[in-house]
Write the structure tokens for this entry.
Amino acid sequence: MEQVAFFRYFCDMEYPKGWQEVTLAQLVELDQLRTRTDLDPEETMNQVLSVLSGVHIDEIEALPHNERIMSYSRMGWLAQYPAKKPKKRVFKLGGTHYRIVSNPAEVSAGEYATIQKIAADGLITNLHQIIACLMIEQRRGWFRWHDVRHDKTTGAQKFAERARLVREQMPVAQAYPYALF
């Protein structure tokens, strides 16, 4: 009876159904798995399942082989890229509305230099910081959204908070179009 309950738990495990449910933190972990050469294909897929489901790798390996194969088949969407166009111009993240600069003319020289420095350390691993550089807080006016610029004293604190929010909450499907920028 205990074994049946154990397998039912794993059959009901939650997996993302697409890139819109994968966060940038999970993308960084997947990218690190892609570069590892010490894992065979089955171990790599077990690691991918662990990252995407949030279940420890030992519990994934304890599953019967046919259950793991069924779980692998649910991950077919990983072979496809997310959409290249953003769905929304203004989006909500952590209770605050933001937009991402999509025109290079709107990026200041200081922001551009910061982005170049961050990107030199690794594009995927620092994608959350790059997007945080390009994000501008928005406030709703009477007829449209308005940019909210912060002074230099709170700018670093706001940047760190935005980078954390992007890493933990922003879906890859939303960040991917701006990563191409």
Summary: Confidence is low (pLDDT under 50) at residues 1-8.
